[in-house]
Amino acid sequence: MNRNKLLAYALGPVGSAAAGLLTLPLMSWHFAGGDIGRIVLLQTAASLALIVLGLGLDQAYVREFHHCGGRQAALFKNLAWPPLLLGVAAATAVWLSAPEMPSEKIFGLADGTLSLLCLLFAAGLLPVRYLSLILRMQERALAFSFSQLLPKLLVLAAVAGVSCFGTRADIWVLAAVYAASQWAAAGLLLWQTRHECAAAFRAPFDARQLSDGLKYGLPLALGGLIYWAFTSIDRWLLRDLAGLEELAVYSMAVSFGAAAMVFQSVFSTVWSPMVFKWVAQGGDTAKVAAVARQMTDAAAAIVCLAGLLSPAVTLLLPPQYGPVQFVLLSSLLFPLLYTLTEVSGIGIHVSKRNWPVPLISLAALLCNLFLLKLWIPLWGARGAAMATAVSFWLFFALKTELSARLWQPLPRGTLYGTTAACLAVCLAYTACGDGLYPYFAVLWLVCLAALAWRYRRLAGRLKTRNNR
User: Fold this and answer.
1) Taking the mean position of all CA atoms in its chain, how far away is CA 27?
2) Average pLDDT over residues 406-423
3) Residue 285: per-residue pLDDT
4) Cβ proximity of 221 and 55 under 8 Å
5) Model confidence over 43-63: pLDDT tens digits?
């Protein structure tokens, strides 16, 4: 993949991160913390619906795209249409049978209008997910990035409008904005992929291909379901054990981890298709180990930079969000470790041995559940971030170990040692960083200097190449 295409792929995550960095601080000044917590719960519940209704067929589509002998239109029809139809049926059934249930379960408010907005938002995720896969697999990087960026920009514009004009600011407005932005993205994607959708409509349906897709995708969906519980239980327990205000603090810290979200989104978008393409074409897969080592060092550098800059977030938020400075660093580990897992754990998917994935997610979930119940009553949002960081490291280590045993060796000592050191520093800063920032800053500067020294030869080679 050339540099221009990689930059085009990065546009969506970078722009989305920038929009998020502007949106949530604006929301913190004009919307109640409880409403911010509620909209986070809506996004969390909608991601569950995407996993359940998707049946893992999105992963099957990515896996088989380069192996279907040029029949991509039929592949899309066989693997994307069943989840889309299932989503329409499920949303309709819920609305007709229990119109107030979604808002009551998610927001704690029994309201039919809010429920309709919840269903619209959740239903909009399915077409966005599957239509964006067409652009992703065709390597139409700029179009893919803009479809990701559009809903974020629309939400930012709406929140800025509320801030400028002093209009109504409550959960009804937020839910309507998020639902409308999601369907705007779906409309854009439908236009961008209109030719592929028309070809898929004309293609014959192949029940065997759907069956094969389900055999591959359902174990991944089960793993995804457990993974959702693993990554989302913190939000629900925060609501129940500490309240919506602590959930708002936690969500604000996660939003400031947008730099790591960029790191995650770009590599999650390009990595799996690229490795599958290497395997299909008989390319050199040994470079996966080198990429894993470099990505680990990059993650360590991001942790150090985020720690050095963490006091700046208090300048952007109301006083009640002061703990965000310390919650930020542990919450930053979620996307960083997930990205490293995408790199180091790719061997599981290449080998098509997906059955252990749910067990790994289950082990991490049980660890997270135990630590959350232990630490949230003591530390609130800080405890939630620390518990999830520890559990994510366990998830990363287990999946890396399994991938190395199923496919090809990895530099596991380096990966485990570097990430464990990052975890220890992040936990210490989150738990007892108040008043100790100067000492932590010295440690982060030393680590950055060590990383710069390690890569000094690479920097020299790049400089020489640019001077030619």
Assistant:
1) 21
2) 90
3) 60
4) yes
5) 999 999 999 998 888 888 888
Res 138: pLDDT = 81
Sign of CA dihedral 411, 304, 16, 172: positive
Tokens of 30: 């004009």
Q: Write the DSSP assignment of 41-98 as a string of letters.
A: HHHHHHHHHHHHHHTTHHHHHHHHGGGSTT-HHHHHHHHHHHHHHHHHHHHHHHHHH-
CB atoms near residue 271 (< 10 Å): 17
Of 176, 139, 142, 140, residue with least CA distance to 161: 176
- Higher-pLDDT residue of 356, 267: 356
Which amino acid is residue 76, in one-letter code? F
**Distances in whole angstroms, Cα of residue 246 to Cα of each of 33, 104, 173, 178, 323:** 8, 20, 22, 22, 10
- Say if residues 409 and 425 touch (Cβ distance below 8 Å): no
The residue written with tokens 């085009």 in the block is 8
Task: Write out the two tokens for 35.
Answer: 């409403």
User: Tokens 């709406």, residue?
Assistant: 158
Cα–Cα distance measured from residue 325 to residue 449, given in angstroms and rounded to the nearest whole number: 23
CB neighbourhood size of 86 (10 A): 15
Residue 33 reports pLDDT greater than 90: no
What CA–CA distance (Å, rounded) separates 232 from 215? 26
Residue (of 56, 49, 400, 47) closest to 220 by Cα position: 56
The candidate with the shortest Cα–Cα distance to 346, out of 257, 261, 277, is 277
Rounded CA gap, 42 and 47, in Å? 9
Provide the pLDDT for residue 73. 82
Tokens of 165: 């004009």
139 sits in the region (left: phi over 0; alpha: psi -120 to 50; else beta) called: left
Q: Given pLDDT bands bounded at 50, 70 and 90, which one contains residue 228?
A: confident
Q: Given the structure tokens 């985020």, which residue do they identify?
A: 306
Q: What is the Cα–Cα distance from 304 to 251, expressed in whole angstroms?
A: 21
